[in-house]
Design a protein that fits this description.
It is built from three helices and no strands. The protein is mostly helical. It has a domain of 32 residues. Its main location: endoplasmic reticulum. Keywords: Endoplasmic reticulum, Membrane, Protein transport, Translocation, Transmembrane, Transmembrane helix, Transport. It is a single-pass membrane protein.
């Protein structure tokens, strides 16, 4: 720490203003183009598209996996009967 008093003392209003100024300029969000606001839109009710709950997605994916497994079993049985 500098004893010469190079900056405002900690806990003062001037120190808080300097800290806020430092946060605003050191963000690095300029390269992202404000994408944070756009990403948040996907998780709100304002976003366009089909609204599906996570439970529905889970059930549909498990159903799809079961359907593919059943097709594999049926294909194996059909192939065995055809050879005989």
């Amino acid at each position: 720490m500098a004893l010469g008093g190079g900056g405002p003392q900690r806990g003062t209003a001037a120190a808080a203003a300097a800290n806020l100024r430092r946060r605003k300029t050191a963000g690095g969000g300029g390269a992202a183009g404000g994408a944070g606001g756009n990403m948040l839109q996907f998780y709100t009710d304002d976003s366009p598209g089909l609204k599906i709950s996570p439970n529905v997605v889970l059930v549909m994916s498990i159903g799809f996996i079961a359907f593919v497994a059943i097709l594999h079993v049926m294909g194996k049985l059909y192939f065995v009967r055809r050879e005989a």
